[in-house]
Model the fold of this input.
Amino acid sequence: MCERQRGARRWQPGQLVVAVMSVAIAATGCGGSNGTDGTSAPPSRSASEAPLETPSTPVPPPTRPESAPATEPAATEPVAMVAAAPVRLHIPSIGVDSELMDLGLQADGTLEVPPNGFPAGWYTGAPTPGELGPAVIAGHVDWGGQPGVFFDLRELSSGDEIEITRQDGSTARFRVTRVEQFAKDEFPTQTVYGDIDHAGLRLITCGGAFDPQMRSYNDNLVVFAELIGSDAAHAADPRPGHS
Done:
């Protein structure tokens, strides 16, 4: 497990996609049924044998026409959080409760993948969960013939909640907006990793059929989520018997 990144970073729009597209886009960590890495298409981390994906243009967010007056006050959007490395991932609806390791780039420019079925990992080149932009977490669907941390990721649906505990003791709470599966050779790099105007989250693993000859899954499964709230760290009460 990698040492956690400490210290604040400032993420700039476009930074993640530029970093991703400057190297060969590799496969997201997905263990094959024989325990070997499977290829996947996510740019923020993956295995080296993944093909280069062609970015696609994301659909712009809907805007309210200027001529249409608001009939009620607009809901207050959650404010993005300051940078803090994530340390734990909790998805109650599918029973995931995993520590998070750091994932960076390998010597050949491809993204690291977790070395085993557990835990999941966070790509340190992306925003931290809760910051403005798309935070990226990836994990194996299986490993060595056993379920991996994201084995049940396909069971998530819109509205399910995801909690990420951060190094500063705060918790970032996200709500799933959609779950999509993409063929690796058609992976929408820009849609998954492109600029967004809010704090978002992408959970990525392998999906589809497993190709025993290529030792790889044919698709990638991507869960899209957005920040809905946060819980600040609570300082301990210094008085005896209080916490």
